[in-house]
Amino acid sequence: MISGSSEGKIKKMQTSRVDNDNFSLKINFSKSKKTDSTKLHQYDVRKYINPDNFNFPAEMQELIPKDTPPYYDKGENYVERIVRALGYFKQCACIGPSGTGKTHIIYLVAELTQLPLWEINCGLQTSAYDLFGRYIGLGKENWIDGIITSWCRYGGILYLDEANMMKQDVATKLNPILDARGHMVLNEKDNELINRHKDAYMIISMNPFSAEFTGTKPLNAAFRRRMSVWLNFDYMSVDNYVDDKEVNLLVERSGIPRDISANIVRVAAKLRQAYKAGDLPYGPSVGDLANWARIIADGASPVDAGNETLVAMTSDDYEIQEEVRKVIKSVDWGIIQTSDDPKVLIIAAIEKSLLEIGKPDLNKVKQRLMEDYNRTLSDCYEEPEFLNRILKDIYGKAHVTIVDSIKKNLESMSDKKEVREFLEVVAR
Ligand SMILES: Nc1ncnc2c1ncn2[C@@H]1O[C@H](COP(=O)(O)OP(=O)(O)OP(=O)(O)O)[C@@H](O)[C@H]1O
Ligand SMILES: [Mg+2]
């Protein structure tokens, strides 16, 4: 599919040049460059492509993405490597399972380099007319460039998503642009020869071709040879590996506590492993996890929110959905509370710490609170001194260990006044 915004822009550009086949695009140079310098500092791309060297007309400036969120990786420097490949070879390929951020990073690269982005999804049946161009009206007077032709003439990044699904006729036409010839021939338009604009870059992306990734095809061989750099993308957390950056990202995006975020990533890592092994049709992306986290932040329990977001997204098949539910339930959600009420959190932390020793211990503490002081566990928030006495009574000096464990369970809340006051009394 041609991205909605590009489509509108192309039409705008075309109307300015239909009168004259020799090209009469009005060039309006933008006076102010919109490169966000803080972003440029974060990624070291200027040495490969310097945005200050470009001066695209105003219509094309609108194809430059804005406000793309940062791309996180584990030190692979994907952003820099893509820009380096473009700087040296003008084109590169990004390969990775669904949801690993390929589209995201390509938008970011376009924004950082300030290059207009022409996006085509080769999996959709976009017609050759839309891609290369056509005459409109009667006769052969009014020619309209297609998206690939516009890119070749005016420059920018041509982003071919699902490149392995590209139709043969399109690939055949792209081949001479990508090799030493560097031009395209518009057979539809009196064999017009268009030289590749000096700032015309290309990025292709696709899912890896293998038996597990159902529906994928190998990339056309002639096309494969023309890509000098291949970058492999993967999820940040897979199988038993839980990446801290991914955990932090969810906390930042939704504001949920860190331990819940870590559990979400744990579930995702397992589901992704199952997807990569061919056991599930989909592996959740960071974006999917952010949605899950948002529903939790709104007050839903982690399991309910996971069912609402992840389960149905993975498949319509009931049995597969059950598999996903099982994985969600398999992590220890414990008695983590999503509430930010300090009383709820403190009582949950006491319960959790005692349960870690064993259920009989929790019962014993509850029983003694009742027998000795006629108090329940939830009274311990207002009257922590009773818990302090009972813990010392039952465990002696070892009561410190239990207090430490409660403290640890309240770590994410340690700046709350109520939590500090409570801990101060039970620790006496
Ligand atoms: N490393 C990352 N840093 C920040 N956000 C990421 C990262 N990886 C994925 N995301 C987020 O996950 C979601 C999915 O990413 P995206 O659509 O770019 O994946 P994709 O690789 O293009 O998938 P597909 O192959 O299905 O097209 C988006 O919301 C994206 O912002
Ligand atoms: Mg994509």
Q: What distance separates the N and C termini?
A: 67 Å
Helix-strand topology string: HHHHEHEHEEHEHEEEHEHHHHHHHHHH
Rg for CA atoms: 29 Å
The whole-number mean of residue pLDDT values reads: 84
CATH level-four homologous superfamily name of the largest domain: P-loop containing nucleotide triphosphate hydrolases
Give an overview of the whole structure.
By secondary structure, this protein is an alpha/beta fold. It has helices at residues 4-15, 37-42, 58-61, 78-89, 102-113, 128-132, 147-154, 168-178, 221-225, 244-254, 258-276, 286-297, 302-314, 318-330, 342-357, 359-373, 384-395, 399-409, 417-426; strands spanning 91-95, 117-121, 133-136, 142-145, 156-161, 183-186, 192-195, 200-206, 230-232. The strands form 3 sheets. A 5-stranded parallel sheet has the order 2-5-8-1-9. It has a two-stranded antiparallel sheet with strand order 3-4. Strand 3 and strand 4 form a beta hairpin. It is elongated and about 100 Å long. Residues 1-34 have low confidence and may be disordered. Bound molecules: adenosine-5'-triphosphate and magnesium ion.
